[in-house]
Amino acid sequence: MKSAEEDAYSHTPNTSVSLGKSCLPSQYHSLQSGPTISVSISQPPSYSAQNDMRTVGYYSSPSIHPTEAPVLESPRIEITAYGQFPEEEVEESNNLPLPKQVNSIVTLTLPNADGYRDPSCLSPASSVSSRSCHSEASSYESGFSYNYENSPQNSPWQSPCVSPKGSSSLALPGEACTHAGYPHNSPSTSPLSSVMDDSWMGQRGSRPNSPCGGKRKYSFNGTTTSKSPYSPNHSPGPSPHTSPRLSVTDESWMPNNTNQYTNSAIVAAINALTTDGVADLGEGIPLKARKTSLEPGAVCLKVEPGREELSPGELCQDEYSSSRLPLKKENYCGGLLDVPSHPYSWSKPKQYVSPSLPALDWQLPSSSGPYSLQIEVQPKSHHRAHYETEGSRGAVKALAGGHPVVQLHGYMETEPLILQLFIGTADDRLLRPHAFYQVHRITGKTVSTPSHETLQSNTKVLEIPLLPENNMRAIIDCSGILKLRNSDIELRKGETDIGRKNTRVRMVFRVHINQSTGRTLSLQTASNPMECSQRSAQELPLVDKQTLQTCPAAGGEKMLLSGHNFQHNSKVVFMEKAQDGHHLWETEAKVDKDSSKSTSLRIEIPPYRNQRISSPVQVKFYVCNGKRKRSQYQGFTYVPANVPMIKMEPHDDCDPPQVCPKHCPVLALHPKPYYTPQVMTSMIPTELRMGGAYPACQQRLGGKPSSLSCSSSPSTSPKLHDLSPTTPFSMCLSAGPSQSPIPHVSIIQETPGRYQPQSVLYPPSSAASSPGSQPSTPSTSGPEAPFSPTHCLTPPQPISGSSSPVTEQLPKVPERGGRSSSPTLANNIKQEPQELDQMYLDDVNEIIRNDLSSISVHSHA
DNA sequence: GTCCTGGAATAAGAT
DNA sequence: AGATCTTATTCCAGG
């Protein structure tokens, strides 16, 4: 079977896929013996499949072509969808589960056969994990490799910001399998999947490692199979065993990349054609995630009745989700999930009625004018996230017991607001929704804070009321963290981050304040990083705080490190790396073992290798408990002995400002020094707002406000993001070419092994929506491209607004191709590192150095 | 019975 | 290619 299967995938030049509800299983199986996959959807979906349809439409779009696949030589999969929605109709087909078109044929061109399948990537039937296949494919395709070396922990912090180039043909088999296996989308309940599993993975171990085969053994039992495999509604699944989890990689997770017609695309298309509302319920949410909140038979996210009252923002941003919602509720969630009664009524109109809210990956300020969103009580640095296969592991707690607390200061209105919470990344790149973790709503007796779960661009967002009577303060005792399987996420098209060792997250809070001017002010703040893995939490040292940020080159000063898992024999190593990642210097600091505890280490700053430095030098240090048990890098700066205090600009790597700790205690306590880029970036919007254009160096310049250095939140940016209804985010999409005279801003971020410049582009509108405008980042438009347009166009305001100077929001360039589905995505293009040749890199660095230099000089002056 | 947790077994991956 | 160490996931069991 396996061999046959592989064969089919490997050698079949043309694959015709027709999705058919009833025949899928068999059809799919036929695959094993034949080169042709014929899956037909003969039955109109009885669920909302807009997403899927959209996806399909996207894929079926004739204008889209895999950039890398030679059409003539590529294997082709023809999807004959009966009842497929035309792309244009998808959006308005909320209530049109039935196909408006029949026999639409989607022809997907795959990379040529050779590259199309990696011998090592076995079919689902094989025991080879798709993950490995996929991962390999991804890396391979991306042309990058993860260099964990750069980080003591091999951290994810360095996940490459590379967009997949598209064809992960290698993964095709697996994905195809996966999807084919769940033609009906109802991942969680689809009996088909069970069938598939049984027949395909029966040999596999209980551990699903791959999306392809990832199924728990218990799901193999025949009972899992439901009688009505095809209808989510029928989802038999009373038994939890029913599809414990399906591959997260369902179409919903697949970003649509223009140039990614790979297996993923195909699978996505297939799924789209066959998926029912269930699947897309959590379009971005892994089945399991949905499962957590579902009762048997209900395959959906915790969509409470109140869900209907999606915030405008949501509606706007996730038009698809909003459109789907009704269906979902009606079909699957109605009455199943009730929100605990709370004083706060979710049905209450949301305060932020702005049609367009900033995408989750946009960098927003934590304060503006009188308003300031602050995390009064930080969450513990460790929180073991639960898998979909596990029960909840409870709400995130605060270090001193209790739960995190967030408060909006400066808000004097009487209108309640909504506090949004989602799980963001904690690496040294721009804050963005974490691909491998999702916020998980906790309910129960112990939860005092009402919450409401929504979905925004594939990211679950918890909405919590901020009430004036509570002083706009909210106790976050309703938020847990769900871990998605790496293999599932990594298979998502456009996803460039890797899950392995990418276990740090931050809780990101947002609030949207409607101002009298009619504008909406969006503020955001992020918590300190939290380690979410069991092992890491137990073994890896973690530095939460450091009492010093800088010290004279002579060293000798004492610094107290606060954190976790410090050991008696913990070592603290200071080191310096060159831009190319080479170690320039490394030395061990003296640890005062007598005064050190598991949560604190007192060390003596070692002298810098060069006592005659004329300018501050950025170095790093980490705590080491032994081989492979190192903390993340912590930033530190050596300053010239005779230079008392300098408000330095970031180094080439854009590290945080080097402010003498003694002069800025707050900063000194700041646990994470590596967020400057975000802040800097966040500054841009203001510039744009003010004048439209901003100098390329503005980020560097603007990023240094003292407030920044003392900001309690790494992700917090000092600038205001004033949203105006008239300037919907979407406008970025249609932003006139006349804007952004200087659309290109470069910043340097540390990446594995070296410092790499990142480019943030604010291309003209045309570029934004034009695939071709994003040469280096297919993923940019990829994952969510299909949705983006809608999203952007959703704003009630005429796009004319787009002609106005770019949005005030600073669209952060999504670093994770698959993540941001925001329309802005299209506008913001992050050039992939690989796109920059060293020469360019050098040039950029040089320029920045010069700028910084001069700035420093001015500072001194 | 459902949550929460803490631990740990085990497979997949990385060295 | 095999051994060994890590990390990711799944399971268990107790409160």
From TrEMBL:
Ranges of compositional bias, category Low complexity: 763-783
Residues annotated as domain RHD: 355-537
Pfam families xrefs: RHD_dimer (PF16179), RHD_DNA_bind (PF00554)
Keywords from the UniProt entry: Cytoplasm, DNA-binding, Nucleus, Phosphoprotein, Repeat, Transcription, Transcription regulation
Segments crossing the lipid bilayer: none
Main localization of the protein described in the UniProt heading: cytoplasm
InterPro entries hit by this protein: Ig-like_fold, Ig_E-set, IPT_dom, NFAT, p53-like_TF_DNA-bd_sf, RHD_dimer, RHD_DNA_bind_dom, RHD_DNA_bind_dom_sf
Gene Ontology MF term list: DNA-binding transcription factor activity, RNA polymerase II-specific; RNA polymerase II cis-regulatory region sequence-specific DNA binding
A GO cellular component annotation in the UniProt record: cytoplasm
A biological-process GO annotation: nervous system development
Name this protein carries in UniProt: RHD domain-containing protein
